[in-house]
Design a protein that fits this description.
Blueprint lengths: L1 H18 L21 H6 L4 H5 L13 E8 L1 E3 L2 E3 L4 E2 L5 E9 L4 E9 L2 E10 L3 E9 L6 E8 L5 E9 L2
Parallel strand pairs: 4-10
Antiparallel strand pairs: 1-5, 2-3, 5-8, 6-7, 6-9, 9-10
Length: 172
């Protein structure tokens, strides 16, 4: 009987480990050390579903509704019919504008920002409201003559957490 319980415990642990994404334990640490214990404050805080955890998820577990995620994002020359056009990581020196296009999952009724950096100095921050569970949105930044070099756009949540970072160059 003891052997059967051990096999059952291992099977349950394996099922929990493979189905619940890392960081999506809903308030309990995954693993045998958590069995029958209440989570500590640190474990509860760590149990939030992070973008990295959702990308690494296996199986069909669903992260909490508030776990906002960048499903896709690109830097592009334009956006037409809500789709990116001319996606690239390098643009010519005479480019007039660039766009950051993003598809956001689980972000309904929340706000994200596209924060533009030129040579690691913040140039602009554009707040974007998310209207549904899967929402496409974009922003654009006018590129001034002489703004050649390294650029970056950080997609951040309402708390300032970087969800995704996209780098590109102008004129290099």
């Amino acid at each position: 009987m003891a052997g059967r319980k051990a096999k059952l415990s291992i099977a349950v642990f394996a099922l929990v480990f493979l189905v619940i994404p890392a960081g999506c334990a809903r308030g309990r640490a995954a693993g045998p050390e958590a069995a029958g214990t209440e989570p500590s404050a640190a474990q509860e805080k760590a149990a939030v579903c992070t973008p990295a955890a959702t990308e690494a998820k296996q199986g069909t577990a669903v992260c909490p509704a508030g776990a906002i995620k960048v499903a896709e994002a690109v830097i592009c020359a334009d956006v037409q019919n809500r789709e990116p056009v001319g996606a690239a990581s390098s643009f010519p020196a005479d480019v007039k504008k660039v766009c950051c296009w993003s598809k956001i999952a689980n972000g309904q009724r929340q706000t994200i920002k596209h924060v533009y950096y030129y040579e690691n100095n913040e140039e602009a921050a554009v707040a974007l409201a998310i209207g549904s569970p899967l929402w496409r949105t974009h922003s654009s930044k006018t590129i001034r003559p002489g703004d050649t070099g390294q650029w970056r756009v950080d997609i951040v949540d309402a708390d300032g957490n970087v969800l995704k970072s996209l780098s590109f160059t102008v004129g290099l």
